[in-house]
Predict the 3D structure of the following.
Amino acid sequence: MELSIGFINDVHGYLEPHSELFYGEDGEYIKTVGGYARIATIFNQIKNGNEHALFFDGGDTFHGTLPVVASKGEVLIPILRKLGFSGMVGHWDFAYKPDQLLTLGEKLNYPVLGINVYKEDGTLLLAPYSIIDIGNQKVAVIGICSNIIDKTMPAIFKQGIYVTDATAEIDGYVKEVKKLGAELVILLSHNGYPQDIELLKNTKGIDLCLSSHTHNRLYEPVKVNDTIVIQCGCHGSFVGHLKLSISDNKITDHEYELIEVNEQITSDEPMEQMINDIMSPYRSLQKQTVGKTDTILHRYSTFSSTMDDLLLKAISKAAGVDIAFSNGWRYGAPIDKGDITLWDLYNIVPMNPVISLVDLTGQEMIDMLEENFERTFSAKPMEQMGGYCKRYLGLQIKFHIENPYGYRIEEIYHQGEHVKREKLYKVAYITEQGVPDKYGSNRAHLETTTVQALITYLNESSSGSVTDF
């Protein structure tokens, strides 16, 4: 039997074609890719090529762009239903409270899965797995949601739930689905690529892992023991197509293509019309120019990024301070050289939070950064809790990332002087991911929103142009 798997992950609400960062011999460049209407065409081609085809969504679906955030994910329901998925998992999908994810899930024609998301009474919030009969195969799909939902995300994500890393649960569920007759076991995971590899090193019986969360572009599948692993970038810029040859209930061969969702792929017309209807109220934002940039703005770097440099400068100027922090978010389509539109600014921060102020001691800043470095670079994969590194402005830090937790920062400067551990520093930030509530004192929230601050900063920059990144 030949089985085709179509997979997307971490689309982050990008309904239409958008800018995406690519890498060539001359450095970084931008192409326009993505869009659910093109993805629908690819899925249809896969189905037309093989009657035995399954499609999966790796999560980070119901958040990331203004229409999706404004509707708490609701606008995506007809699109997702039309794509014909067989299951999904989540992370940012919990952004509007777990109950809203359950509401969205009830409107889908496939399950939201998770063996590791528990209600306060210890029962599962989601179905742990599903069993699919296709051709002559019984396929089990086991779901893992991101283990950081209740650890590094805003409090609203974890209302009434707690989340594990699934290492204690996975073996039991593999055995359970096999007892139910599953001949092929798929792990649909939003834990992240390092975490999935670590889990698979210690788990037997999983044939295929559809990995998400860390936005890895895997142009070739990876094997961990006997498990095939794929992951497909982000923003719907790529579709993974895996062809499995199965004989005597075993995978005997496989072929894989990471399909770039580019202009060579025609859009599915009914899907395109649905998206146009959703986007109609937002077209004016896409036409409203608020500035220019002479360099590509993106946040695809681990330590710092041009997009977040712009964001932090706008935040600090609006707050009247010279130190600012924001979270190391991975999502957000790049902005190419040229015009910056109001739509682009909302893609940077679709939640459009207000700017906040807090007093941090030098020691608190050091502790907060050390904690973040550990969550990003821990030698123990299951203790990595990224995103990227926390973004900061107004500090100069010399660190050794290879050092253990608590010993990575060697020197930290503010205004040319070593930060004093006992001194209070007034800093600006956005969202509780920027400066968690356990740090600081004298917390205050301004009336200015982040998008307003970005507009003002661009207007007050030289000729409205960003040139210093």
